[in-house]
Amino acid sequence: MKATQTEIEYHLLIQSQDSLALSKLYDKYGELIMGKLSRHYPKIAMKDESVILDAVNQAFFGYYKNPTTFNPQLSSLHRFLEIAAERDLKNIIQKEAKHNNKQNLPEDVELENNFWNRIQKQEEDGESKLIFKETAHLLEVILAEHFDESADRDIAKMILAGERETKPYAQVLKLSDEPTDIQKAEVKRAKDRIKKVLERNNITAKIKEIIR
Question: What terms describe the molecular function in GO for this protein (predicted)?
Fold first, then answer.
């Protein structure tokens, strides 16, 4: 989903370093994103909700400092900030885990972060574009060994990138016109099936090697 006209207006103001626009944007989306992260990470929210608040603040401030990382043609600003906040939350948890010499994160957190960073680099200089294309090709080759259908490969890539929204998966599965409960059920079935293939064939480890 592309950015709304209102989001584009906010984006233009933030590109000019309008701090008031950032404040208004935070009022619009800050609590929504905090609530979503709290639902996805209930143990963290119960233990210390300030960690989630820090992640959301980092996401908004990071966007304010570097607004060119957002492309209104690729996603909504709301979704962009959600992804950024979740990435920052994982980074915070990972740093704390390392500090405490613990492993409290899923094994694929590093993979999701690296996958995200590669995607973000596709709009940088020519060399980065070439690296991105080569990486994308290798990903496609690895996934094609295990998934015949392009839809399955697309879903696998979304899983690896940490996508949690139902809508993108429903679009790939051509379920957009179906009722929400059917979408959720079918998406869950597809994700569970594809995750089993990823785990059984150790695909996550293979992909880690090419996107480090």
Answer: DNA-binding transcription factor activity
